[in-house]
Amino acid sequence: MSNPRASFYLGHQSDRELLGEDAYRLLNVLEIQGGEQWQTVFKKVLLDKEPVRFEAIRPPNTELFVQLKSLEVVDAEMPGVIVNLSYIGTLKRSERTRAKMLNFLSHDIRSPITSLLSLTQSKQMHMGSTKELAEQIEPLARRSLKLADNFLRLARAEAAETTSFTDTDFVEVAHNAMDEVYIQAKTRQITLLRHFEEDEIWLQGDLGLLERALVNLLENAVKFSPPQSRIIMTLFVTGSRLVCEIEDEGPGIPQDQLSDIFLPFTQAESNQVSRKKGIGLGLSFVKVVAEKHHGSVTAKNGEKGGAVFTLSLPCEENAP
Description:
Low-confidence stretches: 268-279
Strand order of the largest sheet: 6-8-9-11-10
Number of strands: 11
Mean pLDDT: 83
Helix content: 40-55%
CATH class of the largest domain: Alpha Beta
């Protein structure tokens, strides 16, 4: 006996394909995690009457929790086995995210704080000038503050409720975001250009979250753009959706990393020789904000080089 879900987990089109087949052959497509072999598993269940449970993967990435128990039937000529397959892919992804978060908390946040403590206890603090000490402390303190802020912003975005959203003019949000990164861009001799096709674009949203999402995208563009280059923000409406594109003239993103850069605690390497360090909370924040507003964010490489990030959100139909 079987059901459609079992056939799906084992890679078959229909549960009818499982009927009458050998259980060992059917289950052998699953890779047991931990190194145990199926021959050993069946020996425990059928001969030793010992129930077993373990995690397994059906290639390439279907993660399952498998339980087997012998089925005792009076006067049965052949022994039976009950096999229970449970999908745990979502749970395992959550565990991996938690592991990355713990690593982030234990290393990335603690690292600059540990350096600060070491600095205050060093001989240099007592022998060096106040100016030299301040110059070493300031970047460490700023890094700690930025890491904590990014982590808290991501948590706030994930906890945001759509019931608290209000009428928001996205054009105003875009102007505010551009103004906020102006000094950073000017310091690196980068020109910010605005191509806005609308004077107003209204939607239901959280102004603070949307503005921070655009600031993160713009700061990311500034971070990877060479001096004397341009960053262009294009904003237009198509049907009932607004589209905001941010394009830079940097080195672009390696093709094999495009699908991962919005994952938390992940940052794609640039094509530059000197990689700029980061822990990848900024773009993850943007993705969470986009999804909270029933939208999406994507990344690609431009035809003439550089990276293009596209944010799409539902809005009022005010396009001509």
